[in-house]
Amino acid sequence: MRKIxxxxxLISTAFTSVKTESPAVTVSGRTEKTSDGKVIxxxxxxxxxxxxxxxxxxxxxxxxxxxHNYVSFELDGSYKGRYRIEPGEARWYRVPVDKxxxxxxxxxxxTEASNGTVIYEGVKVETQTPHKSPRRKRVExxxxxxxxxxxxxxxxxxxxxxxxxxxxxxxxxxGPILSRKLKFDFVLSSVSGIxxxxxxxxxxxxxxxxxxxxxxxxxxxxASKPYDFKFQPELVSICLGTxxxxxxxxxxxxxxxxxxxxxANYVAFIKKxxxxxxxxxxxxxxxxxxxxxxNTVFVTCIKEIAAAFASDSQHKPIEVFEFKPMKPKGCGxxxxxxxxxxxxxxxEPVFKRLLEQ
Length: 357
What we know:
The protein is α+β, with helices and mostly antiparallel strands. It has six helices and 15 strands. It has two domains: 16-129, Jelly Rolls (Sandwich); 138-356, Rossmann fold, CATH 3.40.50.1110.
């Protein structure tokens, strides 16, 4: 069932065209609506959901970049595959519907903000029905390539081939997996290669770090489009440090890891998060990509960061979570889909407890 599809569907005029402003559509994640009613999917796993009746459904999409992107389709809670979305004129992508009746379709952006956008222009269905999302608990996942789901989906494109983002599938990242297990709404604010005080191969000289881009809608340097922070999460999960602690590409000069700078930037960033979400609770994660002595330093750092807020009476205590040792099997030593499932399983009891408190 998992496949990349470039299927053009000839649509009968008898079908209903569902506009993005229709009550049948719910938009989630880092997104932007255009003046003509289209939805721009920006961040990893940003989504559009709708209800319809019948056995015919086709979605009109295009990549807003000058190259392809990917989306994942979910129908009635079941994964229907990852689809390659081409640039240029929008195309119709058919969603396989096995039976008649009422259905819920969600279109998730599988790639990340730095890959450019996917633009949703509407759907064609037999009959539209209103889509009303129940009020659920909310979680934001702030992170790097791991949180994006980079390198996790190797079914169609093996590691080392294609473009660097051809194995991205945010639908199968640990955050979205966990959201489906615990039934909460989520936003991913994540960028591959990014860090808290420096990035994978940059000492914060030419590339922005997470504190620089977090408040910007597109998670880049463009501050002219701020993120509105209307999504107020009960819990914020932060998984940053893998790139701060990395050795880079081995060619570009790399300074030793600066523990004090990392901790100071992290503490300042948490204060920024609290300024946007005064009632949220924060959990800090280590990295499944780091082991040995580096992991010991990593965990020491995030415990020190949490301790810096020990006397903070305005917020609930900051939680520190450590993943069990892992040998990631995805591209570039990233977790693959099975690894992300393991990560979500480890996080499940902790997140369940924190969301219930």
